[in-house]
Protein: HTH-type transcriptional regulator DmlR
Organism: Cupriavidus respiraculi
Amino acid sequence: MQVFVRVVETGSFSAAALTLDMTPSAVSKLISRLEARLKVLLLQRSTRHLAVTSEGKQFYESCVRILGDMEEAEFGVSQDTDAPHGVLRVNVSLPLGTHYIVPLIPEFAARYPGVTVDLSLTDSVVDLQRERVDVALRMGQLPTDANFRARKLALSRRAVVAAPGYVERFGAPEVPGDLASHRCLRFNFRRMLDEWPFRIDGKTVYLPVRGGMLTNNGETMRQLTLDGLGISRLGLFHVIEDLKTGRLVELLPGFNGGDVEDVHVVFSSQRHMPARARVFIDFLVERLVPLLSRDFQPVG
Protein backbone atom coordinates (compact mmCIF):
# COMPACT_ATOMS: atom_id res chain seq x y z
CA MET A 1 0.00 0.00 0.00
CA GLN A 2 2.83 2.40 0.83
CA VAL A 3 4.52 1.66 -2.49
CA PHE A 4 1.28 2.14 -4.43
CA VAL A 5 0.60 5.49 -2.71
CA ARG A 6 4.12 6.68 -3.52
CA VAL A 7 3.76 5.66 -7.19
CA VAL A 8 0.51 7.62 -7.49
CA GLU A 9 1.98 10.68 -5.79
CA THR A 10 5.26 10.72 -7.75
CA GLY A 11 3.72 9.72 -11.07
CA SER A 12 6.16 6.97 -12.02
CA PHE A 13 7.76 3.73 -10.87
CA SER A 14 11.27 5.16 -11.10
CA ALA A 15 10.47 8.29 -9.06
CA ALA A 16 8.75 6.19 -6.40
CA ALA A 17 11.69 3.79 -6.33
CA LEU A 18 14.12 6.64 -5.62
CA THR A 19 12.17 7.78 -2.58
CA LEU A 20 11.72 4.22 -1.28
CA ASP A 21 15.31 3.04 -1.86
CA MET A 22 14.06 0.32 -4.20
CA THR A 23 14.63 -0.56 -7.84
CA PRO A 24 11.98 0.42 -10.42
CA SER A 25 11.52 -3.24 -11.33
CA ALA A 26 10.84 -4.14 -7.69
CA VAL A 27 8.24 -1.39 -7.48
CA SER A 28 6.62 -2.58 -10.72
CA LYS A 29 6.47 -6.18 -9.50
CA LEU A 30 4.89 -5.13 -6.21
CA ILE A 31 2.16 -3.19 -8.01
CA SER A 32 1.53 -6.09 -10.38
CA ARG A 33 1.17 -8.51 -7.45
CA LEU A 34 -1.19 -6.05 -5.75
CA GLU A 35 -3.35 -5.81 -8.87
CA ALA A 36 -3.38 -9.61 -9.23
CA ARG A 37 -4.54 -10.03 -5.64
CA LEU A 38 -7.24 -7.35 -5.99
CA LYS A 39 -8.14 -8.56 -9.51
CA VAL A 40 -8.36 -4.96 -10.80
CA LEU A 41 -6.15 -2.67 -12.86
CA LEU A 42 -4.93 0.15 -10.62
CA LEU A 43 -2.53 1.84 -13.04
CA GLN A 44 -2.73 2.19 -16.81
CA ARG A 45 0.82 1.86 -18.17
CA SER A 46 2.36 3.04 -21.41
CA THR A 47 5.93 3.67 -22.49
CA ARG A 48 5.67 7.38 -21.63
CA HIS A 49 2.72 7.73 -19.30
CA LEU A 50 1.28 6.31 -16.10
CA ALA A 51 -2.41 6.96 -15.40
CA VAL A 52 -4.47 6.03 -12.35
CA THR A 53 -7.67 4.14 -13.17
CA SER A 54 -10.96 4.90 -11.42
CA GLU A 55 -10.44 1.80 -9.27
CA GLY A 56 -6.90 2.99 -8.57
CA LYS A 57 -8.15 6.38 -7.39
CA GLN A 58 -10.63 4.75 -5.03
CA PHE A 59 -7.97 2.40 -3.68
CA TYR A 60 -5.48 5.27 -3.31
CA GLU A 61 -7.90 7.26 -1.14
CA SER A 62 -8.48 4.23 1.06
CA CYS A 63 -4.75 3.57 1.33
CA VAL A 64 -3.99 7.13 2.40
CA ARG A 65 -6.66 6.97 5.06
CA ILE A 66 -5.57 3.55 6.35
CA LEU A 67 -1.86 4.38 6.40
CA GLY A 68 -2.62 7.61 8.24
CA ASP A 69 -4.70 5.75 10.81
CA MET A 70 -1.91 3.20 11.27
CA GLU A 71 0.65 5.94 11.83
CA GLU A 72 -1.56 7.63 14.41
CA ALA A 73 -2.27 4.32 16.14
CA GLU A 74 1.39 3.30 16.30
CA PHE A 75 2.44 6.66 17.66
CA GLY A 76 -0.33 6.66 20.25
CA VAL A 77 0.70 3.24 21.55
CA SER A 78 4.44 3.88 21.55
CA GLN A 79 4.32 7.42 22.99
CA ASP A 80 1.11 7.17 25.06
CA THR A 81 0.06 10.61 23.83
CA ASP A 82 -2.32 12.20 21.37
CA ALA A 83 0.03 15.09 20.59
CA PRO A 84 0.38 15.93 16.87
CA HIS A 85 3.53 14.46 15.36
CA GLY A 86 5.30 13.61 12.13
CA VAL A 87 6.49 15.59 9.12
CA LEU A 88 4.28 18.48 8.02
CA ARG A 89 4.97 19.54 4.43
CA VAL A 90 4.07 23.20 3.89
CA ASN A 91 4.30 25.10 0.60
CA VAL A 92 4.08 28.91 0.52
CA SER A 93 4.84 31.67 -1.97
CA LEU A 94 8.24 33.24 -1.37
CA PRO A 95 7.06 36.72 -0.25
CA LEU A 96 4.28 35.47 2.04
CA GLY A 97 6.54 32.79 3.46
CA THR A 98 9.50 35.10 4.03
CA HIS A 99 7.61 37.96 5.67
CA TYR A 100 4.86 36.11 7.54
CA ILE A 101 5.18 32.32 7.82
CA VAL A 102 8.89 31.92 8.64
CA PRO A 103 8.69 34.35 11.61
CA LEU A 104 5.79 32.30 13.04
CA ILE A 105 7.48 28.88 12.75
CA PRO A 106 9.43 29.12 16.07
CA GLU A 107 6.19 29.67 17.97
CA PHE A 108 4.50 26.75 16.21
CA ALA A 109 7.52 24.51 16.87
CA ALA A 110 7.45 25.39 20.57
CA ARG A 111 3.76 24.49 20.78
CA TYR A 112 4.08 21.22 18.87
CA PRO A 113 7.59 19.81 19.33
CA GLY A 114 6.54 16.48 17.84
CA VAL A 115 5.86 18.06 14.45
CA THR A 116 8.72 18.49 12.00
CA VAL A 117 7.93 21.33 9.57
CA ASP A 118 9.19 20.76 6.01
CA LEU A 119 8.76 24.27 4.60
CA SER A 120 9.16 25.07 0.88
CA LEU A 121 9.03 28.64 -0.41
CA THR A 122 8.41 29.09 -4.12
CA ASP A 123 6.36 31.23 -6.46
CA SER A 124 6.30 28.46 -9.08
CA VAL A 125 3.22 26.31 -9.56
CA VAL A 126 3.61 23.11 -7.53
CA ASP A 127 1.63 19.88 -7.93
CA LEU A 128 0.54 19.57 -4.31
CA GLN A 129 -0.50 15.94 -4.59
CA ARG A 130 2.64 14.79 -6.36
CA GLU A 131 4.88 16.70 -3.94
CA ARG A 132 2.86 15.31 -1.00
CA VAL A 133 2.15 18.77 0.39
CA ASP A 134 -0.04 18.77 3.51
CA VAL A 135 -0.83 22.49 3.67
CA ALA A 136 -0.24 25.28 1.14
CA LEU A 137 -0.90 28.99 1.15
CA ARG A 138 -1.95 30.41 -2.20
CA MET A 139 -2.52 33.90 -3.52
CA GLY A 140 -5.11 34.70 -6.18
CA GLN A 141 -7.59 32.49 -7.99
CA LEU A 142 -7.39 28.78 -7.21
CA PRO A 143 -7.68 26.05 -9.87
CA THR A 144 -10.45 23.50 -9.44
CA ASP A 145 -9.11 20.36 -7.78
CA ALA A 146 -11.35 17.82 -6.08
CA ASN A 147 -8.38 16.50 -4.10
CA PHE A 148 -8.03 19.71 -2.11
CA ARG A 149 -10.15 22.12 -0.12
CA ALA A 150 -9.44 25.77 0.60
CA ARG A 151 -10.21 28.23 3.38
CA LYS A 152 -10.02 31.95 2.73
CA LEU A 153 -7.81 33.82 5.18
CA ALA A 154 -7.65 37.36 3.84
CA LEU A 155 -7.96 39.69 0.87
CA SER A 156 -4.89 41.55 -0.40
CA ARG A 157 -4.76 44.65 -2.58
CA ARG A 158 -2.00 44.88 -5.16
CA ALA A 159 -0.18 48.11 -5.85
CA VAL A 160 1.98 49.55 -8.63
CA VAL A 161 5.18 50.75 -6.97
CA ALA A 162 8.61 52.18 -7.71
CA ALA A 163 11.63 53.46 -5.83
CA PRO A 164 11.95 57.23 -5.37
CA GLY A 165 15.23 57.08 -7.28
CA TYR A 166 13.49 55.60 -10.31
CA VAL A 167 10.84 58.34 -10.20
CA GLU A 168 13.53 61.00 -10.00
CA ARG A 169 15.28 59.68 -13.11
CA PHE A 170 12.32 58.74 -15.27
CA GLY A 171 9.34 60.56 -13.78
CA ALA A 172 6.09 59.14 -12.46
CA PRO A 173 3.32 57.98 -14.81
CA GLU A 174 0.29 60.25 -14.49
CA VAL A 175 -2.15 57.91 -16.26
CA PRO A 176 -1.94 54.15 -16.87
CA GLY A 177 -1.15 54.67 -20.55
CA ASP A 178 2.15 56.31 -19.55
CA LEU A 179 3.46 52.89 -18.45
CA ALA A 180 4.12 52.09 -22.12
CA SER A 181 7.23 54.27 -21.93
CA HIS A 182 8.45 52.88 -18.58
CA ARG A 183 10.44 49.87 -17.49
CA CYS A 184 7.94 47.45 -15.94
CA LEU A 185 9.23 44.40 -14.10
CA ARG A 186 7.47 41.12 -14.90
CA PHE A 187 7.32 37.48 -13.87
CA ASN A 188 8.87 34.94 -16.23
CA PHE A 189 6.45 32.15 -15.31
CA ARG A 190 3.51 34.03 -16.77
CA ARG A 191 2.74 34.82 -20.37
CA MET A 192 5.21 37.10 -22.11
CA LEU A 193 2.62 39.86 -22.46
CA ASP A 194 1.72 40.96 -18.94
CA GLU A 195 -1.47 42.94 -18.47
CA TRP A 196 -2.14 45.10 -15.41
CA PRO A 197 -5.72 46.08 -14.45
CA PHE A 198 -6.70 49.73 -13.97
CA ARG A 199 -9.98 51.51 -13.36
CA ILE A 200 -10.49 53.98 -16.22
CA ASP A 201 -13.74 55.87 -16.78
CA GLY A 202 -15.60 53.52 -14.47
CA LYS A 203 -14.41 50.37 -16.24
CA THR A 204 -11.64 47.87 -15.52
CA VAL A 205 -9.13 47.97 -18.36
CA TYR A 206 -6.18 45.59 -18.73
CA LEU A 207 -3.13 47.30 -20.18
CA PRO A 208 -0.06 45.42 -21.47
CA VAL A 209 3.30 46.34 -19.94
CA ARG A 210 6.80 45.69 -21.22
CA GLY A 211 10.42 46.41 -20.51
CA GLY A 212 12.56 46.03 -17.45
CA MET A 213 13.59 42.62 -16.17
CA LEU A 214 11.99 39.23 -15.65
CA THR A 215 12.14 37.12 -12.50
CA ASN A 216 10.48 34.01 -11.11
CA ASN A 217 9.53 35.26 -7.63
CA GLY A 218 8.08 38.28 -5.88
CA GLU A 219 10.93 38.71 -3.39
CA THR A 220 13.48 39.21 -6.17
CA MET A 221 11.07 41.57 -7.95
CA ARG A 222 10.73 43.62 -4.77
CA GLN A 223 14.50 43.91 -4.48
CA LEU A 224 14.88 44.91 -8.12
CA THR A 225 12.22 47.57 -7.53
CA LEU A 226 14.01 48.85 -4.42
CA ASP A 227 17.18 49.08 -6.51
CA GLY A 228 15.40 51.43 -8.89
CA LEU A 229 15.43 49.11 -11.90
CA GLY A 230 11.77 49.50 -12.79
CA ILE A 231 8.12 49.65 -11.82
CA SER A 232 6.44 46.56 -10.40
CA ARG A 233 2.97 45.40 -9.36
CA LEU A 234 3.15 43.59 -6.03
CA GLY A 235 0.87 42.56 -3.17
CA LEU A 236 0.42 45.33 -0.62
CA PHE A 237 1.34 42.91 2.18
CA HIS A 238 4.69 42.44 0.49
CA VAL A 239 5.68 46.13 0.25
CA ILE A 240 3.67 47.82 3.01
CA GLU A 241 6.75 48.45 5.19
CA ASP A 242 8.63 49.85 2.18
CA LEU A 243 5.74 52.23 1.50
CA LYS A 244 5.56 53.31 5.15
CA THR A 245 9.27 54.09 5.28
CA GLY A 246 9.42 55.73 1.86
CA ARG A 247 11.71 53.15 0.28
CA LEU A 248 8.94 52.71 -2.31
CA VAL A 249 6.12 54.94 -3.49
CA GLU A 250 2.77 53.87 -4.88
CA LEU A 251 2.01 54.97 -8.43
CA LEU A 252 -1.39 55.55 -10.04
CA PRO A 253 -3.38 54.89 -6.82
CA GLY A 254 -6.38 56.74 -8.22
CA PHE A 255 -6.68 54.15 -10.99
CA ASN A 256 -6.56 51.13 -8.66
CA GLY A 257 -10.23 50.31 -8.37
CA GLY A 258 -10.08 46.80 -7.00
CA ASP A 259 -6.86 45.02 -7.97
CA VAL A 260 -7.12 42.43 -5.21
CA GLU A 261 -6.36 38.76 -4.66
CA ASP A 262 -7.54 36.27 -2.06
CA VAL A 263 -5.23 34.46 0.33
CA HIS A 264 -6.22 30.83 0.90
CA VAL A 265 -4.91 27.98 2.96
CA VAL A 266 -5.21 24.81 0.88
CA PHE A 267 -5.31 21.28 2.30
CA SER A 268 -6.30 17.75 1.38
CA SER A 269 -9.97 16.93 0.95
CA GLN A 270 -9.43 13.54 2.58
CA ARG A 271 -11.93 12.90 5.38
CA HIS A 272 -9.18 12.00 7.86
CA MET A 273 -6.82 14.99 8.14
CA PRO A 274 -3.60 14.34 10.09
CA ALA A 275 -3.57 16.11 13.45
CA ARG A 276 -0.36 17.95 12.49
CA ALA A 277 -2.12 19.56 9.50
CA ARG A 278 -5.23 20.39 11.50
CA VAL A 279 -3.34 22.17 14.29
CA PHE A 280 -1.21 24.08 11.76
CA ILE A 281 -4.31 25.39 9.98
CA ASP A 282 -5.81 26.39 13.34
CA PHE A 283 -2.53 28.10 14.20
CA LEU A 284 -2.62 30.08 10.94
CA VAL A 285 -6.16 31.24 11.66
CA GLU A 286 -5.15 32.28 15.17
CA ARG A 287 -1.82 33.98 14.44
CA LEU A 288 -1.64 34.77 10.72
CA VAL A 289 -5.12 36.13 10.05
CA PRO A 290 -4.74 39.07 12.49
CA LEU A 291 -1.43 40.00 10.84
CA LEU A 292 -2.94 39.83 7.37
CA SER A 293 -5.99 41.84 8.44
CA ARG A 294 -3.68 44.54 9.78
CA ASP A 295 -1.12 44.66 6.97
CA PHE A 296 -3.47 44.20 4.05
CA GLN A 297 -5.21 47.51 4.70
CA PRO A 298 -4.44 50.27 2.17
CA VAL A 299 -1.69 52.69 3.16
CA GLY A 300 -2.73 56.26 3.97
